[in-house]
Amino acid sequence: MPEISSTPSRLLIIGIGNEYRGDDGVGLWVARRLRETLSAPVTIIEQSGEGAALLEAWKDFQNVILIDAVHSGAAPGTIFRFEAHQQAIPTQFFHYSTHAFSVAEAIELARALRQLPARLVIYGIEGKNFAAGIELSPEVDKMTPEVIDRIIQEIQSGKH
Asked: Is 136 exposed, middle or buried (0-12, 13-18, 19+ CB in 10 A)?
């Protein structure tokens, strides 16, 4: 297992998605692999992306990493990284949400309510196929090890 540098505040990793909608399940897939790789003091959970549930999930954490599929028009498998504690998140990236409001809108609501974690990093993986099914597209599947490596490096560097 990789050596994890710990900070006084705990780290929460949230994998977001719907595993029955193709590439929309990539956040869940990455979270499951990280759960197998990382050890305490990291907490890893899976969420559907529903806004109120996200606010509730991260309320006791100062450091959060969120992983989700995005749909921006970029090449499938493209990896995006946003620092939501420092910048607004493009709402068009997360418009595939099946909920009342998207991940980006939930983050902006949390910002307005002053309920945003001190550090909130989002990894978005550009999806290709959001139709019914449990398989990731080859382009997205190929990039999941890269996302996992980037998250592990970020944790080990002490940023979280």
From this structure: buried
Token pair of 50 as six digits = 């529903």
Domain count, the chain: 1
**Mind listing the pLDDT tens digit for each residue in 35-75?**
999 876 899 999 988 888 898 999 999 999 999 999 888 99
At 145, which CATH number? Answer: 3.40.50.1450
> For the whole prediction, is pTM greater than 0.85?
yes
User: Residues of 37-60 as b/e, b for ≥16 C-beta within 10 angstroms?
Assistant: ebeeebbbebbebbbebbbebbee
**Residue 65 lies in domain:** 11-156
- By the 10 Å C-beta count (0-12 exposed, 13-18 middle, 19+ buried), 149 is classed as exposed
Q: Which two tokens stand for residue 103?
A: 């991940």
Q: Classify residue 2: in a domain, yes or no.
A: no
Q: Give the 3-state secondary structure of residue 59.
A: coil
Q: 28 near 40, Cβ under 8 Å?
A: no
Residue 93 forms part of a structural domain? yes
